[in-house]
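HOLO CASE FILE
Compound: cobalt (II) ion
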Amino acid sequence: MQLNIVEYPDSRLREKSKAVEKFDKDLHELLDAMYTIMMKSNGIGLAAIQVAHAKQVLILNIPDEEDEQSIDDLIEMVNPVITHKAGETTYQEGCLSVPSFYEDINRFETITVNYQDRDGNTKIIEANGLLSIAIQHEIDHLNGILFIDKLSYSRRKKFEKEYKKAQKEKKLQNK
Ligand code: Y12
Ligand code: CO
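Model generated. Tokens follow.
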């Protein structure tokens, strides 16, 4: 399965993803292909809607203390729901669908998430630190929310101007 990353301002990023009901070969192929494109793109988290599949599916591969990503740390979440949130934290976030833009975003420090794995088994995880931030970022994607939606009015305006300019330059370079 060949996937491409959908980039802002593509309207598909605003779609609400649907719950997964079948834990079949198609789902496994989607998860495998998402991992391939995420690693190829130097990502640490990816939601299915970012590759144009409006399914409640996300993957995470948080780097270790040596900043290395291991497949052993890959987390696949299907139909995730945050059941508990506490505290506050700020992190400079980036997103494969909003290339070359990073900004401080406030999130909950600790969360508890109920989800299913690729075979439909129910799982519960308590997360904090970068994992907690990444899960919240990716679950937002499943609801059509991007991290840039959390910027102040003035910061968002500045972003829109800078992003449009960067996109124009990118187009000219590809001509
Ligand atoms: C903390 C904050 C946000 C997340 C969500 C997952 N985000 C990513 O995986 C972002 C990846 C990313 C990768 C980029 O590519 C390179 O660095 C080579 C990138 O740069 C460009 O697009 C030029 C931007 C974002 C998880 C945890
Ligand atoms: Co993102």
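CASE NOTES: Residues 42-45, 91, 93-96, 99-100, 130, 133-134, 137 surround Y12 (ligand 1) (CB under 6 Å). The mean pLDDT is 97.
CLOSED: yes
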